[in-house]
Write a structure and sequence with these properties.
Layout (H helix, E strand, L loop, with lengths): L57 E3 L21 E5 L13 E6 L5 E6 L6 E6 L5 E6 L16 E6 L6 E3 L2 E2 L9 E2 L1 E8 L6 E7 L18 E6 L19 E4 L17 E6 L5 E2 L5 E2 L1 E10 L5 E10 L26 E4 L19 E2 L6 E6 L5 E6 L7 E2 L12 E2 L5 E6 L2 E6 L5 E3 L15 E3 L5 E10 L2 E10 L3
Parallel strand pairs: 9-10
Antiparallel strand pairs: 1-31, 2-3, 3-4, 5-6, 6-7, 7-8, 11-12, 12-13, 13-14, 15-18, 16-17, 18-19, 19-20, 21-22, 22-23, 23-24, 25-26, 26-27, 27-28, 29-30, 30-31
Length: 489
């Protein structure tokens, strides 16, 4: 595979370098002063890489003097013509102060506002529906008060239909007064992502009702991060006996089971987070049957030595999420909402004995291959370098995919055909070929202050382009701007 390197420096600060390269294994770095292009591999090669005439291209898509933050997946419109983003102001995107959800046309650079928050609310972390013209995102509290300001358990998911911009429809219902309503939750949802079929929506969740308890006891649980799912065509209506109660268009449940004090060495978890749907159509079980919907996620376990590490878990989901399991779907005043009947939570990795145990690296979400046979995550190799690893949904030892000198430096996505994974590495945007583990950089190695942001490297629906963000200087200020890099032909 060949790739053309374009300078990743801010506009007018570096010469454009065009080069083509192909080779096997490792990673590459390109200096703006080098016109030929040198392929730097994670392992020493005895011969120089061959050159190709096929070239790629990187374009800056946004230029407005405002923040531009991409979610880690689902940022492309179904037709691949638009990229959706939020406008958080700080370069790191850590301050949730954005007031607009916008999208930019990748050909013309035209920007459209899809939603603008009001009454003191903020909005962000937006993703597209995989097939329809609508987006889902976080909306913080309107008319915030000291006892109800923005935090992890005071937010909600909302949907905007592109044919009716600026009109937000509440996704998940909220009921804060017992007896609680099945299908409604009691806190805040976050990072909403549609299943590839375009029906169910996954998210992470924290609970306002349990946040009042600081310590877990036999009488009460405490607020812990969990993973929930909203299903359509089952609207939920709640009472108005609390001013922050509201209805929702979807029936919403929690799917994970957590405990504040996991037994050391057990499969119990105290935090469930960074989930991803498994396959376009689920995966095939070991007995040959088909698991239609499943979610992979990270879970915090406690080792026998008392260390908290992240391991890979899987949720096998039943077709019907509206039936109660061993506890009420809505929870109680002292207990978390319980998973629906038929949800199976399984641990897939056991890494406590590795030199660098646990899932590690930059913040990232577990991502499944389109065919459902592989789950990708980040872990350190024995030298301490963050690499891509693959795990089967059936479990078994993780398989190391990359063996690069430089660590993977961002969240990542699979190409639609399952052959490549896009990510940042060594201040460049790169792709790793899954069959071979070969990593090739598609952009020049940037100066440290202007390296690709770690939040997102997102393949387009066609697999021909990758969206990403880096800081750009504008006057005396720095703004995150969206770039698109083409895949090599």
């Amino acid at each position: 595979m060949a790739g053309k390197i374009l300078s990743s420096k801010p506009p007018d600060q570096g010469a454009r370098v065009e080069s083509t390269l192909s080779g096997t294994g490792g990673s590459c770095r390109m200096s703006a002063a080098v016109a030929v292009g040198i392929l730097c591999l994670g392992q020493v090669l005895s011969a120089a890489p061959s050159l190709s005439s096929t070239m790629t291209e990187t374009r800056q898509i946004t230029r407005n003097r405002t923040g531009h933050i991409l979610t880690n997946t689902g940022v492309w419109s179904p037709d691949g013509e638009w990229i959706v983003f939020d406008t958080r102001s700080d370069p790191a995107g850590d301050t949730f102060d954005g007031t607009r959800i916008q999208m930019v046309n990748v050909r013309s650079g035209k920007v459209k506002t899809l939603y603008e928050s009001r009454q003191g609310a903020y909005c962000g972390v937006v993703t597209f529906h995989p097939h329809a013209p609508r987006v889902v995102f976080i909306l913080g509290p309107e008319n915030p008060t000291p006892d109800w300001s923005y935090n992890a358990f005071h937010r909600q998911g909302v949907i905007v239909d592109l044919t009716k911009p600026r009109q937000a429809i509440r996704l998940d219902a909220r009921d804060l007064i017992p007896p609680f309503t099945p299908g409604a939750l009691r806190g805040g949802s976050h990072v909403h992502v549609w299943h590839p079929a375009g029906d169910w929506v996954s998210f992470t969740y924290e609970d306002h009702v349990l946040a009042q308890f600081k310590t877990a006891t036999p009488e009460n649980e405490v607020n812990l991060r969990n993973i929930g799912i909203s299903i359509p065509n089952r609207p939920v209506t709640v009472s108005r006996d609390h001013p922050r109660n509201h209805d929702g268009t979807h029936f919403t449940v929690l799917a994970t089971r957590t405990t504040a004090n996991p037994r050391p060495g057990s499969d119990e978890i105290k935090r469930a987070f960074e989930e991803g749907w498994v396959g376009t159509n689920g995966y095939v079980r070991t007995d040959g049957s088909h698991q239609i919907r499943a979610l992979a996620f990270q879970g915090h376990v406690v080792t026998l030595q008392g260390e908290t590490i992240s391991e890979l878990f899987l949720l096998d989901l039943p077709n019907d999420l509206t039936q109660a399991g061993d506890g009420p779907l809505a929870g109680t005043a002292t207990r978390s909402p319980a998973p629906p009947k038929g949800v199976i939570q399984r641990r897939l990795t056991f890494t406590a004995d590795r030199k660098h145990p646990g899932i590690q690296g930059p913040r990232h979400w577990i991502r499944g291959s389109p065919d459902g046979t592989k789950l990708a995550c980040l872990m350190k190799d024995d030298t301490g370098v963050v690499q891509l690893w693959l795990v089967s949904p059936h479990g078994g030892p993780p398989q190391q995919l990359t063996r690069n000198t430089w660590g993977i430096a961002s969240a990542f996505t699979w190409s639609p055909d399952g052959r490549h994974i896009a990510h940042a590495m060594d201040r460049s945007v790169c792709v790793t070929e899954v069959p071979s583990g070969q990593t090739i950089c598609l952009t020049d190695r940037a100066e440290e202050a202007f390296a690709p942001r770690p939040e997102a490297c997102v393949f387009s629906p066609t697999g021909r382009e990758i969206a990403w963000v880096r800081p750009v200087v504008s006057g005396r200020l720095v703004f995150n701007q969206i770039f698109v890099t083409r895949m090599p032909e």
